[in-house]
């Protein structure tokens, strides 16, 4: 790794804050002693990528594990889909898995939370960077190349994705295009992803159907009773999506932003465990933590990278382990 700057060890204490500002701005600084490099200060982005690469190298490889395609969906808005998708993706990456993350919501909450819209000139703001292009023809064009963010490949979203529903309303046969384009992309990879995570828009639309149909496993985040009011709508949508993805299965409910001492959430958890567990398992809870999640969003980081020792980050790791167990994937040691 080439450095962008260097600093003498003798002057590091005096210049510490200025040096850290350089690192925060993205520069790598080599600390020198007697004209020889002895250590380096690197941005956290570089650090997390190194951690993920090392975890990938040391993770025991399954004899054969096809790419696990997980879609995070709920027909109701405000249930934490983007948060669950982001945190699950990075939690898996920290375990050593190769992960792709798709933002399929025109609101682009996931994309924005990762800082990809902060620069007005960012490619993530262009239509060409999104998956929208795969619906432009009967035969789907190739997916665009992803943007790498903290060691995870990300397909961003922006409001240009609003046009997808117009296309599909006129020609629903193209609802299979995203799955077919993803099939083609994975088959062309020398080392395919271990996990593909798809974040979706709320409300029952043809674009949501196409997004769900690109996956094999459906995870439903729930943060309140409202998140279950449209469950029947989502299950009907799954039946339609199975015309494209016959193996699509509701795999788990994920309670998130939970306050276990609040009556509303006590009732929600009871309902999930007693009534809805017959449909799919319920993962461990992810607690409500405005301070950590708000700080993570402000720093444009997933919580598991922003504050890995926070209680909510520990919840996310436990939830991730639950999901792996449900999928029959051995949790790396």
Automatic annotation (TrEMBL):
<dbReference type="InterPro" id="IPR036165">
    <property type="entry name" value="YefM-like_sf"/>
</dbReference>
<dbReference type="InterPro" id="IPR027417">
    <property type="entry name" value="P-loop_NTPase"/>
</dbReference>
<dbReference type="InterPro" id="IPR025669">
    <property type="entry name" value="AAA_dom"/>
</dbReference>
<feature type="domain" description="AAA">
    <location>
        <begin position="70"/>
        <end position="239"/>
    </location>
</feature>
<protein>
    <recommendedName>
        <fullName>AAA domain-containing protein</fullName>
    </recommendedName>
</protein>
<dbReference type="InterPro" id="IPR050678">
    <property type="entry name" value="DNA_Partitioning_ATPase"/>
</dbReference>
<dbReference type="Pfam" id="PF13614">
    <property type="entry name" value="AAA_31"/>
</dbReference>
<comment type="similarity">
    <text>Belongs to the phD/YefM antitoxin family.</text>
</comment>
